[in-house]
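quick one before i forget lol
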Amino acid sequence: MSLTFDFVSPEPAATDRVTLFADVILPLPLPKLYTYRVPYEMNDEVVIGGRVIVQFGAKKTLSCIVAAVHETPPAQYQAKYILEFIDDAPVVTQPQLKLFRWMADYYMCTLGEVINAALPSALKLSSESRIQLHPAYIADGSPYPISEQEQQILTALSTEDGKSMTFTEVGELLGSSNFHKVIKSLMQKDIIFLFEHLADKYSPKVVKKVRLAHHFIEESALEALFSQLAGRPKQLDVLMRYLQRVPVYQNIYANHRGLEKNALTSSPHLSPSAVNTLIKNGVLEQFDVIVSRFPLDDEPEAKLHFTLSEAQTTARDEVLTQFSQRYIVLLHGVTGAGKTEIYIDLIRNALDGGGQVLYLLPEIALTAQIVTRLMRVFGTRLGVYHSKFSDNERVEVWNGVLSGRFQVVVGVRSAVFLPFDNLALIIVDEEHESSYKQYEPAPRYNAREVALMMANFQGAKTLLGSATPAVETYYQTRAGRWGLVQLTKRFGEAGLPEIELVDTRKQREAKKMHNHFTPELLSEIERKLGLKEQVILFQNRRGYSPFINCLDCGWIPKCKNCAVSLSYHKHSHELRCHYCGYNDRMPVECPACGSRALKTVGFGTEKIEDDLKIMLPAANVQRMDLDTTRAKNSYQQIIADFENQVTNVLVGTQMVTKGLDFANVSLVGIINADSIIHYPDFRAHERAFQMFVQVSGRAGRKGKKGKVIIQTADPTQVIFDKVIRNDYLEFYEYEIGQRREYGFPPFMRVIRLTVKHVDQLLAEQAAILLTQELVERLGREAVLGPEAPYIFRIRNFYLQEITVKIDREHTVLKQAKAEVLAAINVVKDQKEFKQARIVADVDPM
C-alpha cells in the first residue's frame, strides 16, 4: 500500500485572513524553489529556516526548509498545502541560508543539493524515514499523557528490542494520512527518535556504573561485610577503593549516583574478577546510565594552563595586529613550531569577546588527537563534528550550536554547515590540505573557501595555518590582500630533522634491497627501536599489492566497473577496486591459461606492515589507512596506542602526514617518493613538496634529533633539494613562475567538466558537442580538451574531461559560469544525450 496525502485545509472563519505561501528548499537537485500554501490556521507557525513536511509528486512526502514567506501564488501550478510544521524555531539560520545560496551559485549546483549535504539525516524526513523508541523512554515513568494513536505506535515499536518503523508503515498502522502530528507529538515528548537509514540507527552512549547495595549503607552492615571479606583481600581492596571514591556517609545521594565501573576495573592494582564477584554476590549493584556524548568536562572553564613561549607570544601579537587591518591572516610556521597553542590562545580571546569559534582540521585522525587537549581547556563549551559520528550525535552538536551550548566547534570540512550566527574567529589548520575538498556528490566545495566566505558574511576573522601553504594562499599574502605571520623555529629545544636521500635504483642493482627497504632505512629502524624510540613509515598506497599478474600469460585482473586493475588485500584475501568497491576472491589459478604462477606486483601499506612483522618480529607494528580506520573509534585507538608507545612502528598513507604530534618519534621513512612526484596534474609538485615536508615534520618534535630517510629512484629531482633545506619560499617562487607561464591558479579560475555516459562513443560525442558550445561562448584559448582522463571508466561510466580557464575577476567569472551552464543545457537538450551526466567541479584539487 502506498500512501498519498490529500490535505484539505478548513475554510477560514474570517474573510480578512491573509493567504500565505512558502518557498521551500527540497533536498533534491531541483533548479528552482518550490512554493506551497500555508494553511490558514498555521499562519502564525511558519518560520523561515524551520522544517515543514510536504507532499512532492504523487506519493512522496519530504521535509524541507522554509526559505521565504510571501503572499504571491505560483503562476505555473496550483500550490499544494503544507502538511505539517515540524519546528517552531529555525533549525537553519539566516546566515546559513545566505551561505548556502552562495555555495549553490559558486559551485554550480542546486540549493537542494547543498541542503542535502548540510543537514544531518535525522533532520531530513521522508516517507522512508524511520522511527524507534528513545532508549531512555520508560513507559510507566512518562510525565506526558499518551493518546490512543500514540499508544498504537508505542505498542508496535515495543514488540521487539530495537524495532523501527518507516513513516509509510506508521501511516498504514494508523490507517490515516494525517499521522505526522502523532509523530511530531512523540518527538516533542522525547519518546521516539528519527533516523534516515538503518546505518544511522541510534545507539545511545551507555556508561556502566556500580554502587554499594543499599542494605550495606548502615555502618553495622558495612562492618559485618568487612569481616566477611577479611579472607578475600582482592574483593576487600575493591570495596575500599569504592568507599574512598564515593563518600556514602557525607552525601546520601553520592552512593545512588555510584561510580563508573571502569574506575575500578581499569586500575592495575584491582582485580576485574573481584569487581564482578562483588556484583554477583549482591555487594555492588551494576546499572547502566545513558550519557551525552559530549560531557567533556564537569567544569565549564579550563583545567589546562600553559604559557606561550616568547616566539609564540610574538606571533600571537602579530596575528592580532594583522587582524586589526585585515580579515584573513596566514600563520606560516615550520612543523612543530607550536601553532596549536597560539590557536588556543586566540580562541580564548574570541570567546572572551562573546563570539563563536570554528576550528577546522583536514582529517578525523587530527581531531581525535587534538580534542583531548581542547576539552581540558574549553570544557563543556566545546563540540566535535565529523563524519564518524552517528547521525544523532551530529544532530546533538547542531542543536548545541543553535542553543549556544557549544561556543567552540572543532571539526572536519562538513563543520562549515553548522548553524553559527555569531562567529568571531575561524581557524583553518593545515589549510593546504586537499582533504578540505569535497569530490562527490555535489556540492563539490572546498571547506577553506567556504570558511572564508562564511567569515566574510558574519564579519569574523579567519586564521589559516600551515607549514606548507597552498600556492594560491601564499600568493594572496604576497599581493598584500591577506596578512602574513611567520614562525621559523620549532617550539622548545627541538630542531628540524636531518633528511637523507637513498637511491633505490643503485641498491636494487647491487641486490641490497630487503623487500622494499634499503639497508639504510632498515638498519636505522632497528637502531631507533633499540633506543626505545618510535618510527613512522609513509607509503601513499593502501592494500597489500596494487595488482597481481600471471607470469606465464601476463593476465592482470581488472575491475568489471572501472578501467583499473584490482588491488590485492591479504588480510581479507580478496581483490578490491579502490574506486567503486567491487571485490572478488583471490584466484588460485589464472582464469586465462590455468597457470598457478600468480605473483603480486608492487606494494602498499598492508605489505609493508606484513614484511616488517617478519623482518622485525620484536617490533609492534600498526597500520593507519582507510582499511584500518573504518570503525568509529579506530582513529582514536591507533593514535592512543602509538602515543602510549604500545606501538613501535606506525605504517600509513597520507593520514600520517597531517599534523600529528608524537613526542617519541625520531625516524620517518618515505618508502616510495617517486609515485607522488610523477602524477599527471599541475599540482603534483606542490602536493609532493607539502607531503614530504609534512611527514618529515613528524620526526624529532620534543627535543630528540629527528631523522628522515626518503627512498627514491631519482635523487636528482629538483624538489628534493628544496625539501632538504625546508625552503618553502624557493619552492613557491619556482611554482608560481610555472603557474604564471601556463595560466593556472592563482592567475586563472579553473572549472573541470566531466561528461559521463555508459556508452563510450556517446560520452565522446557529448564531450565534443559541449566543447564546441564552450569554444563558441568563451573562445578557444579558454577551453582545453576534451580528453579521456587517466582512469577513463569508473562505476560503468565512461569519462571525458574538459577544462575551462576563466579570468579571476568576479563579474567575468559569474558571466562565464552562466555561459558554461548554457552550454551544458544545449547538450542535455539533445535527445541522444539525455542519459549523459555532466558534472561541474569549480576549483578542482
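fyi The CA atoms of residues 357 and 710 lie 39 Å apart.
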